[in-house]
Design a protein that fits this description.
Blueprint (H helix, E strand, L loop, with lengths): L6 H14 L19 E7 L4 H14 L3 E5 L4 H9 L5 E4 L5 H9 L4 E10 L1 E4 L8 E3 H8 L21 E5 L4 H11 L10 E3 L2 H9 L4 E5 L1 H6 L5 E6 L4 E2 L3 H6 L6 E9 L6 H20 L7 H10 L7
Parallel strand pairs: 1-2, 1-3, 6-10, 7-8, 7-9
Antiparallel strand pairs: 3-12, 4-12, 5-9, 5-10, 10-11
Length: 318
């Protein structure tokens, strides 16, 4: 696989290298090489935000383990948990924590799980590059746009001085963890949102929508901004302490508020008895510092991945 690195991604890789220090994990598949004779299929589904991370992990793991097939879907966090709790997949990608209702579904089906944090994300608010006036929006302005009863359909209604131009909205569908997180942080109630916008569980559809519409405003995971930096313009967010834009530093230290968030994978405990699943999950933790930036996201500190990897061998983890 040949990857084209944007300036943002190169910065993310630099941050990761600095964080790794003398960590001996490499991105060439060495940590999984011992399992190169393994066979099997591992199915993942869920968050479209986490999808690029899991996809690059699957590709690199497959280089060292060509007889293990890892499939990665992107039906949204909610869609992934439905399949996960129905025993249809081994790993669920999630851009939010599992809900109580989903825990009940898993319990009813006898599905026990491990929660592993894999990266940090800054949920990005974006406009078309032709937009020269929306440099920063406050949380109150975002709520005014996105709250359930909103009738805002023109930029002039957002702030005095903004031009009289139609406002076209793009955002995740209701199965998306990004939708859940954004509505909770901006509108104050999870799932509370206006519905008259172009919605998709596939973030690339939202990217193309904003990129092709000079009057657009949208939101989705930061990794898709890094991948499409020339097509999008990031809008800063003022959460009460001044305008801050998402970047590797502000996402990691939490100053990009309230839209910085952790990303997860959920793994079935029963699946961890399978050598190929256990090897892949450990590979995910070992290679996080190097491969997460390649997917456009902010890695955890190497020590955090190592701490989580250590729990995989503790009693009760499998």
């Amino acid at each position: 696989m040949t990857r084209k690195f944007s300036g943002v991604r190169l910065m993310l890789v630099a941050v990761a290298l600095a964080a790794c220090g003398n960590n001996d994990a490499s991105s060439d598949g060495d940590t999984a090489a011992a399992g190169s004779d393994m066979t099997g299929t591992i199915q993942m589904d869920g968050s479209s935000t986490v999808y690029p991370i899991s996809q690059v992990m699957a590709e690199e793991f497959g280089r060292a383990n060509p007889n293990v097939r890892v499939t990665v879907g992107n039906s949204g966090t909610g869609g992934g948990f439905k399949r996960f709790c129905a025993n249809e997949i081994e790993i669920s990608n999630a851009s939010r924590s599992i809900k109580d209702s989903e825990k009940e579904l898993c319990a009813a089906a006898g599905v026990e799980w491990l929660e592993l944090k894999v990266a940090m994300d800054g949920l990005a608010v974006v406009v078309n590059p032709a937009n020269t006036f929306a440099q920063c929006l406050t949380v109150a302005e975002l709520k005014k746009i996105w709250e359930p009863e909103s009738r805002v359909n023109n930029w002039s209604q957002v702030r005095a001085g903004f031009p009289n131009k139609p406002l076209k909205l793009y955002g995740p569908g209701t199965n998306s963890g990004t939708f859940d997180y954004f509505t909770a942080e901006i509108n104050g109630t999870e799932d509370a949102s206006r519905s008259d916008y172009t919605a998709s569980e596939e973030d690339n559809v939202l990217v193309q929508g904003v990129a092709g519409d000079a009057d657009a405003l949208g939101y989705f995971g930061y990794g898709y901004v890094a991948e499409n930096a020339a097509k999008l313009k990031v809008v800063g967010v003022d959460g009460g302490g001044g305008c801050v834009s998402p970047d590797p530093t502000t996402v990691k230290n939490g100053t990009y508020t309230p839209l910085s968030r952790p990303l997860y994978i959920y793994v079935k405990k029963s699946a961890m008895t399978r050598p190929e699943v256990a090897a892949f999950v450990r590979y995910f933790m070992d290679q996080g510092p190097m491969l997460v930036p390649q997917a456009g996201y902010v890695p955890l500190d190497a020590a955090e991945y190592q701490q989580q990897a250590a729990t995989l061998t503790q009693p009760g983890a499998q």
